[in-house]
Amino acid sequence: LSREMDTPIHFEAAVAGGIPIIRTVQDSFVGNRIHSFSGIINGTSNYILGRMTDAGLTFEDALGEAQKLGYAEADPALDVNGWDAAHKAMLLATLAYGFPIDPASIHVSGIEQVRPTDISFAKNLGYAVKLLAVIREHQDGAVELRIQPSFIAQKNILASVHGVFNAVAVHGDAAGESLFYGRGAGQDPTASSVVADLVEAARGLRQASGHRGFLPYRETGTILPVGETSTAYYVRFDVTDRPGVVAEIARVLADHRIGISGTHSPVNPSNPDAEFVDMVFLLHTCPFGKLQAALAEIEALDCINSKPVVFRIENLG
Q1: Residue 251's domain spans which residues?
Q2: In this structure, are 54 and 183 located in the same domain?
Q3: Each residue's pLDDT tens digit, 186-210
Q4: 212 part of a folded domain
Q5: Which of 117, 158, 299, 310 is deepest in the core (most CB within 10 A)?
């Protein structure tokens, strides 16, 4: 439509609420080759995870609180299943790398499966759980784009982003690392960006200049298949408590040449012989496709009661 009408599209409020990240990428970073974005770009999910962390709430209770406060919609599906963040990440990637992105080509996982057990385990290991957007250009030009709940080291600045705030870290070849932080949800931050777009559009009526929205400047590009992306992992299994469970899971992982850095099952100190239902494995860095193949085989074991839950353990530098 923008091309046909020869008219700019302004959409600052579409990503990160009151943070002027769109115009920054379009204008301020025009002299940079952007190597990566990493960030928290959904305020609702960040609020929910924060309440689970700080107040020990379950996902359901934290979501209900967010809805009462107006941070979550009556139908919160897009916020909690990761697709709201994914849509925003696709806009950033299109601006930075210049080609339209098929939603079917990216990996999206939400926070619905996050449990207090996961939050507690992360805290004990020195991590925070965040719904993280990762956009990264590889040396061959392929772009990695994924959204998923992740363990982030507590010393990383993104781990300190609380409530409905958003933050986007941008790495450009000339500018280096930059961080943009602000309110990502709520009517006032969104209104701020909308008004800025209206003013910019009004200026353009008097003197045409500037960008044309997200018109692609490359016909095609490549999204790196998620199976080829690599990180370390936290995997939680819902298991039947019986002798040999750990060995059965470890055998499959070994068959797929995936290293194990640790295992854990929550224990009730007052009843150490009580049956456990959760078994956590910390896994060494490997391609996600290799992990998926191993998990498919593990899921078929008769000691596994449901689909394993996977969190990435990110190394953001």
Answers
A1: 226-313
A2: yes
A3: 677 777 777 776 777 777 777 665 5
A4: no
A5: 158
Which of 88, 155, 290, 307 is an active site residue? 88
What are the structure tokens assigned to 198, written together? 């209206």
Name the nearest CA neighbour of 314 among 178, 106, 159, 164. Answer: 159
Confirm if 216 and 99 have CB atoms less than 8 A apart.
yes
User: Look-up: residue for tokens 């299109």?
Assistant: 94
Same domain, 173 and 305: no
pLDDT digits (tens, 9 = 90+) for 214-224: 445 666 789 99
Whether the full predicted model's pTM is greater than 0.70, yes or no, is: yes
In sign, the C-alpha dihedral spanning 182, 23, 128, 43 is: positive
Rounded Cα–Cα distance for residues 197 and 88 (Å): 17
Largest CA distance in the chain: 76
Domain membership flag for residue 252: yes
User: Does any domain span residue 211?
Assistant: no
Our answer to whether residue 88 is catalytic in this structure is: yes
